[in-house]
């Protein structure tokens, strides 16, 4: 039994008056006890918060691990450790593996691997066979085993006809389709945002309208088919305007954006540093400001990590040849707190809604309120601690992030989930042996 005392307890699930008086007690089974119910029960371990925050565990809606087939980038074990270190107790992992999760056999294999993980891992199944956008994946078979999230992840469906047919089918089962909005016929061989920086570096650019065109198309399809549709990242002013337009017309849409796109623009490109090669690419400063305003207004109401690990060997090459992506699980909270709350863009309550409540509601995942009788699932945060993103301190198997050596405010000190208390004072590697 553990008693957590002298904590600033914040629960975005609770819109009324809190029942907690700066302390919370968890029994030996990991269940939150009502205030005063622990009287006379021993032994009790007391953890003093000294004014730190205690909040429900975060939920990530856009995350890539390497199993099966790409374990050299990230395993279930290392990905889980990175998630815990970032305060995430629930993550949705995407099907761009080798082989992709486009059949029940691969799904069941992956499900067996995540069974002993220290966090909740939700598998997003392929929308089409091989994530190739041509033939629909076995949606009915997936739904029969409880899968309700579908996406081709890094390979957005390009055919309008196939996207419409697929959405019609998924809508029959009330599934959620997750799309990365990008018209690849227009993007061509581009590797960064089309603009001054692409011209300066002599690299092929990706026009910003690749995003808005796809948002318009998919918004029309969502409205026509009635499917629930989520855009993993909206990164341009035009894309945000297209999203708002389609949603106002009745499309069942939602969207998120990762910290990379409200903290960085293509002006931050460090010459040919491949850690800045992201997808979507870093956009213009005007787009970055539009993203911030969309977060402030609530148009964008989720903040995923966009965790895309790549090995150091893969990233140590020229900018065109390097793979896309950056790790994000361990930096999402601190980057968001520093860039949004400390800058007066969001209140801490609004940030927690975007990290905890909104993603779980939209993705149909179990709520995790700090409520008596519920399993304890929470994060301990020091909102005053300055953290520096150091290569050797990262728990992910990969080290690719544009935030290396950046300083943020707000550290994740500990996590309680699945009846285990994880602190982050010791080196990574011992939390999960699966």
Can you tell me about this structure?
By secondary structure, the chain is of the alpha/beta class. It folds into two domains: 80 residues, Urease, subunit C, domain 1 (Roll); 306 residues, Alpha-Beta Barrel (TIM Barrel), CATH 3.20.20. Helix content is 29%, strand content 18%. The chain is built from 13 helices and 18 strands. The strands form five sheets. The protein has a five-stranded mixed sheet with strand order 2-5-16-17-18, with helices on one face. The chain has a five-stranded parallel sheet with strand order 9-10-11-14-15, with helices on one face. A three-stranded mixed sheet has the order 3-1-4, with no helix packed on it. Helix 4 packs across helix 7. The C terminus is likely disordered.
Q: Mean pLDDT, rounded to whole units? A: 94
Fraction of helical residues: 25-40%
Low-confidence stretches: 426-434
What percentage of amino acids are in beta strands? 15-25%
Tell me the overall shape.
Answer: globular
Q: What is the level-2 CATH architecture name of the largest domain?
A: Alpha-Beta Barrel
In angstroms, what is the radius of gyration? 21 Å
Distance between the termini: 26 Å
Task: Report the structural category.
Answer: alpha/beta
CATH C-level class of the largest domain is Alpha Beta
Biggest sheet, spatial arrangement of strands: 2-5-16-17-18
> How many helices in DSSP terms?
13
Count all strands and give the number: 18
CATH superfamily of the largest domain: Metal-dependent hydrolases
Q: Examine the coordinates and then state which fold CATH places here, giving the name of the CATH topology of the largest domain.
A: TIM Barrel
**Please, how many domains?**
2
Q: Tell me the quaternary state.
A: single chain
Largest sheet: 5 strands, mixed
């Amino acid at each position: 039994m553990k008693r957590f005392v002298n904590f600033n307890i914040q629960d975005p699930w609770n819109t009324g008056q809190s029942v907690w008086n700066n302390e919370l007690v968890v029994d030996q089974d990991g269940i939150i006890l009502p205030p005063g119910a622990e009287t006379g029960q021993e032994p009790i371990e007391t953890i003093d918060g000294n004014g730190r925050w205690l909040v429900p565990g975060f939920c990530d809606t856009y995350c890539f691990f390497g199993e099966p087939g790409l374990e050299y980038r990230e395993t279930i074990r290392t990905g889980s450790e990175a998630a815990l270190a970032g305060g995430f107790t629930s993550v949705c992992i995407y099907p761009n593996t080798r082989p992709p999760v486009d059949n029940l056999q691969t799904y069941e294999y992956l499900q067996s691997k995540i069974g002993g993980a220290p966090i909740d891992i939700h598998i997003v199944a392929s929308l089409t066979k091989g994530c190739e956008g041509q033939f629909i994946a076995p949606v009915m078979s997936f739904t029969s085993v409880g899968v309700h999230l579908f996406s081709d992840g890094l390979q957005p469906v390009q055919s309008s006809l196939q996207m419409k047919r697929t959405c019609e089918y998924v809508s029959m089962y009330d599934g959620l389709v997750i799309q990365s909005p990008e018209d690849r016929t227009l993007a061509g061989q581009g590797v960064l945002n089309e603009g001054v920086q692409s011209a300066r570096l002599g690299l092929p650019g990706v026009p910003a309208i690749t995003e808005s065109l796809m948002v318009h198309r998919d918004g029309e399809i969502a409205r026509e088919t009635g499917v629930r549709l989520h855009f993993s990242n909206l990164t341009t002013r035009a894309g945000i305007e297209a999203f708002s337009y389609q949603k106002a017309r009745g499309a069942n849409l939602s969207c998120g954006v990762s910290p990379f796109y409200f903290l960085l623009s293509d002006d931050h490109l460090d010459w040919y540093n491949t850690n800045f090669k992201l997808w979507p690419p870093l956009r213009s400063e005007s787009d970055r400001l539009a993203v911030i305003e969309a977060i402030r207004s609530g148009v964008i109401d989720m903040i995923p990590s966009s965790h895309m690990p790549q090995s150091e060997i893969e990233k140590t090459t020229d900018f065109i040849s390097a793979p896309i992506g950056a790790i994000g699980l361990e930096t999402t909270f601190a980057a968001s707190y520093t860039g949004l709350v400390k800058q007066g863009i969001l209140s801490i309550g609004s940030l927690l809604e975007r990290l905890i409540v909104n993603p779980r509601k939209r993705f149909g995942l179990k709520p995790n309120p700090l409520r008596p009788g519920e399993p304890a699932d929470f994060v301990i945060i020091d909102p005053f601690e300055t953290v520096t993103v150091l290569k050797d301190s990262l728990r992910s198997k990969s080290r690719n992030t544009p935030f290396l050596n950046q300083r943020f405010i707000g550290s994740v000190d500990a996590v309680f989930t699945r009846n285990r208390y994880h602190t982050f004072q010791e080196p990574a590697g011992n939390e999960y042996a699966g």
